[in-house]
Automatic annotation (TrEMBL):
It comes from the Bacteria. It holds the Pfam family Catalase. Decomposes hydrogen peroxide into water and oxygen; serves to protect cells from the toxic effects of hydrogen peroxide. It comes from Pedobacter ginsengiterrae. PROSITE patterns: CATALASE_1 (PS00437), CATALASE_2 (PS00438), CATALASE_3 (PS51402). This is Catalase. The keyword Transmembrane helix does not apply. Its cofactor is heme. It catalyses: 2 H2O2 = O2 + 2 H2O. Its EC number is 1.11.1.6.
Length: 730
């Protein structure tokens, strides 16, 4: 059948690993092949259906038409109820040092071993086709294909969650999803039902601070942290258990876009994060994260002023430092979105020996939900046979049959014990790698209630708010004012103010001002359905307020990595007559440091430089937009400068870049373009390096020093101080 042997289609920089090699046997490539039906029959005409004569009706006999249309009619599967919109990549994980002191998980004990991973990032609330830039939590789900089976770390980019008990999850999601009568709004929490629910769930106060912060607007999936959220257990070979929290720390630092920018990107490029991840991997700029762990010995379980089983609490890094134990590198894009990214099925219950669960009631509920959801989403019990979900080691058990079964199990026996089949497959002892649940002692009464140790809803919300920089704090106030401003029901807004005042009075006062309301006096018991009638208000404060931290630097993005411009996108605005030296000196240096540089001109095709060189722009002002870049440079060349000065789109580009607090550089010759912007008169007349680095705008005739300072400015990412005194709606 094949006219040629099939070729693998992927960029050369991308890497293979055990899992991607195994996937090869399921991939197919149609290059230079004949078209066939699903049953292998060569098709001779795919343009016309079979008809009774030139102008006659189509014949029922046309099995080729029927097969094609039937398959098409069945192409869609239900999208995920949450995290429907996602993007994924293959990669590898390597532990730095043997962790066997803490865990017997083999992939964490062998520093030489590379474990294949598949990672899916997502938004939570929006549908599959919604924008990447919604204000939302981001999913961060990692499937490790280990030699002991798959381990899934199904986390988010925020370390806590909205609710403490899984029984409230359907309510939370019904509240945030588009409202059921009119299916509005899409991919947004800024509506009545979400805040109606949240305002009556004070346990969500901490997570709300995160969700209203810039963490909900990542610059890139590659620039966000990840968290396993729950407290898990590490168990070592001796059976000793320690509590563990998992973290992912991005090597490029944690960066966000501005809210106004996010809304614009949603229109200009709703696939912004998906494209960013894909392009970075295609270009060989492989995203990297370090895996971090916070380890808490069993005997320290009760030493904190919160309950470590409560998923609305984090363990401040100041109390238990994060040890970085390994590195994950994403180095290969999927071959096919549906087969891999859409069909991948994660489950918090996929663990390996050495990793175990705790009694966190949110985790316990999740342990049920993830398999259950795949049964409907992927259509039956054999979803583990879908290539992306298969472990890299063989699967043997007595489970059989079901829709779409692929495996052909040999032999007569599919039960155990069996004498006819030699009792195969065998059960593995703990010493043979069999999973043995941690021997936790349980001695309790059955109750349907919340532990009092879960009742302090506000201390960590306050800790988060207090730990933010001024700009970050202002963004939280703006986000709450925006979201609650979109809520139509005034009593919901008021109830939310009553929650906010428990976190911080100034926060509540500022939001109340924006809403034109006063903060009402509403008792907590009126706000919280889960609070028992006999509860005492003192139960709602920290277990040990004196021992609490007042600030944790790790919670702010202000101190994140700011020493690299790798993969930042820089726009160079140019037109005919541009000074090619002024352009290429800056461009070449930026590229050498790992930035992505695009030349943007009034039209596509080419421009002719001052020295008569032909330069091909990457984008025109029509196809590009400032919100898709991190920084902008205007080279010299009097004709180019005159064109840009008269080009409203170029001036708009700069105005927006300034408004969104981005680095701006101009050759001295191009100053007149800056003069046309609204921000020029706000800039200090005299520059020193210090003022430039504060303002994020540099104009200089000395291209060498300009490019050096520009690089520092781009590395700083955003100049949020520019918003002061809060006159710029970023
Ligand atoms: Fe969940 C998907 C993360 C609580 C029920 N969840 C899902 C995904 C992520 C998370 C990243 C997408 C996986 C993928 O890319 O395919 N979920 C979390 C985190 C939680 C959390 C960090 C709290 C700490 N989830 C949670 C609860 C429940 C669920 C309490 C139900 C009781 N989650 C699901 C689900 C999904 C899911 C319905 C939808 C699609 C899927 O599982 O495969 O089962």
């Amino acid at each position: 059948m094949a006219k040629k042997t099939s070729q693998k289609n992927s960029a050369s920089a991308q890497q293979e690993n055990d899992k991607t090699t195994k996937l090869q046997s399921f991939t197919t490539d149609a290059s230079d092949q004949f078209m066939t039906t699903n049953h292998g029959l060569k098709i001779n005409d795919d343009q016309n259906s079979l008809k009774s004569g030139d102008r006659g009706a189509t014949l029922l006999e046309d099995f080729i038409l029927r097969e094609k249309i039937t398959h098409f009619d069945h192409e869609r599967i239900p999208e995920r109820i949450v995290h429907a919109r996602g993007s994924a990549a293959h990669g590898v994980f390597k532990v730095y040092e043997d962790m066997s002191k803490w865990t017997k998980a083999a992939f964490l004990c062998n520093p030489g071993e590379e474990t294949p991973v598949f990672v899916r990032f997502s938004t939570v609330a929006g549908s599959r086709g919604s924008t990447d830039l919604a204000r939302d939590v981001r999913g961060f789900a990692v499937k490790f294909y280990t030699q002991e089976g798959n381990f899934d770390l199904v986390g988010n980019n925020m370390p806590v969650f909205f609710i403490q008990d899984a029984i409230k999850f359907p309510d939370l999601i019904h509240a945030v999803k588009p409202e059921p009568d009119n299916e509005m709004p899409q991919a947004a929490s800024a509506h009545d039902t979400f805040w109606d629910f949240i305002s009556q769930m004070p346990e969500s106060a901490h997570m709300i601070m995160w969700a209203m912060s810039d963490r909900a607007l990542p610059r890139s999936y590659r620039m966000m942290e990840g968290f396993g959220v729950h407290t898990f257990r590490f168990v070592n070979q001796q059976g000793v258990s320690n509590f563990v929290k998992f973290h992912w720390k991005p090597l490029l630092g944690v960066h966000a876009v501005a809210w106004d920018e996010a809304q614009n990107i949603s229109g200009k490029d709703p696939d912004f994060h998906r494209r960013d991840l894909w392009d970075a991997i295609e270009s060989g700029a492989f995203p990297e994260w370090e895996l971090g762990v916070q380890i808490v010995p069993e005997e320290d379980e009760f030493k904190f002023d919160f309950d470590i089983l409560d998923p609305t609490k984090l363990i401040p890094e100041e109390l238990v430092p994060v040890q970085r134990i390994g590195k994950m590198t994403l180095n290969r894009n999927p071959e096919n979105f549906f087969a891999e990214t859409e069909q991948v099925a994660f489950h918090v219950g996929h663990v390996v020996p050495g990793i175990d669960f705790t009694n966190d009631p949110l985790l316990q509920g999740r342990l049920f939900s993830y398999t259950d959801t795949q049964l409907i989403r992927l259509g039956g019990p054999n979803f583990h046979e879908i290539p992306i979900n298969r472990p890299i080691i063989p699967v043997h058990n007595n489970q059989r049959d079901g829709y779409m079964r692929q495996t052909i199990n040999r032999g007569k026996t599919s039960y155990g014990p069996n004498a006819l089949g030699n009792n195969d497959p065998l059960q593995a002892k703990g010493s043979e790698g069999g999973f043995v649940s941690y021997n936790e002692r349980i001695d309790a009464k059955k109750i349907r209630a919340r532990s009092r140790s879960f009742f302090d809803h506000f201390s960590q919300a306050r800790l988060f708010f207090n730990s933010q920089s001024d700009a970050e704090r202002n963004h939280i106030i703006d986000a709450l004012s925006f979201e609650l401003g979109k809520v139509k029901a005034v009593p919901v807004r008021e109830r939310m103010l009553a929650v906010l005042v428990q976190i911080d009075k100034s926060l509540a006062a500022e939001v109340a001002f924006a809403l034109g309301l006063h903060i009402p006096k509403i008792g907590l018991d009126e706000l919280n359905n889960s609070i028992p009638a006999d509860a005492d208000p003192k139960d709602y404060t920290s277990l040990n307020p004196k021992g609490s931290l007042s600030k944790s630097d790790a919670l702010s993005m202000a101190g994140t990595v700011k020493n690299t411009i790798q993969t930042r996108k820089v726009a160079i605005l140019a037109a005919d007559g541009v000074d090619e030296k002024s352009l290429s000196k800056v461009k070449d240096t930026l590229i050498a440091q790992g930035a992505v540089v695009h030349i943007i001109a009034p039209k596509l095709g080419h421009i002719i430089s001052k020295g008569d060189q032909q330069i091909t722009p990457d984008e025109s002002f029509l196809t590009a937009a400032s919100v898709l870049y991190d920084a902008v440079y205007i080279p010299g060349g009097s004709n180019s400068v005159a064109t840009l000065e008269a080009e409203a789109n170029a001036v708009h580009f700069l105005n927006e870049a300034f408004k969104h607090c981005k680095a701006i550089a101009a050759d001295d010759e191009a100053i007149q373009v800056l003069e046309s912007t609204y921000f020029f008169k706000k800039l200090p007349a005299e520059y020193s390096t210090d003022t430039v680095l504060r303002e994020g705008v540099i104009v200089s005739s000395d291209i060498n020093s300009l490019k050096d300072i520009f690089i520092k400015m781009i590395a700083m990412h955003r100049f949020w101080d520019r918003e002061n005194p809060r006159k710029i709606p970023a």
